[in-house]
C-alpha cells in the first residue's frame, strides 16, 4: 500500500493492462477473418502502450512533485 501511494500510476497501469487483455480476449470470439496471431499482437501492443503511458505519466507526476512543489516549500531553519 505504501508503494501504491508513492507511485499511484503503477496500479493504474496494471489495472489498465488487465482490462485491455480481458476486453481483447472477450472480443476474440467475434474477430472475424483476422488471424489469431494478428489479434494477439494487437492485444499485446495495446496493453504495452497503456502501461508505457501510465509509467510516463508517473515519472512526470513524480518529477512535478519533487522539483516544482518541492522548490515552493520553505526549508526548515536549524539553529546551531
From TrEMBL:
Record key words, sorted: Membrane, Mitochondrion, Transmembrane, Transmembrane helix
Subcellular location: Mitochondrion membrane
Coiled coil (residue ranges): none
GO biological process: mitochondrial respirasome assembly
Annotated Pfam families: HIG_1_N (PF04588)
Main location: mitochondrion
A GO cellular component annotation in the UniProt record: mitochondrial membrane
Protein name as annotated: HIG1 domain-containing protein
Species whose genome carries this gene: Knipowitschia caucasica (Caucasian dwarf goby)
Lineage: Eukaryota, Metazoa, Chordata, Craniata, Vertebrata
Amino acid at each position: 500500500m505504501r508503494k501504491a501511494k508513492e507511485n499511484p500510476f503503477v496500479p493504474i497501469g496494471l489495472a489498465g493492462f488487465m482490462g485491455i487483455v480481458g476486453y481483447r480476449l472477450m472480443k476474440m470470439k467475434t474477430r472475424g477473418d483476422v488471424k489469431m496471431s494478428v489479434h494477439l499482437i494487437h492485444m499485446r501492443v495495446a496493453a504495452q502502450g497503456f502501461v508505457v503511458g501510465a509509467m510516463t505519466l508517473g515519472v512526470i507526476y513524480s518529477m512535478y512533485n519533487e522539483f516544482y512543489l518541492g522548490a515552493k516549500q520553505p526549508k526548515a531553519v536549524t539553529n546551531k
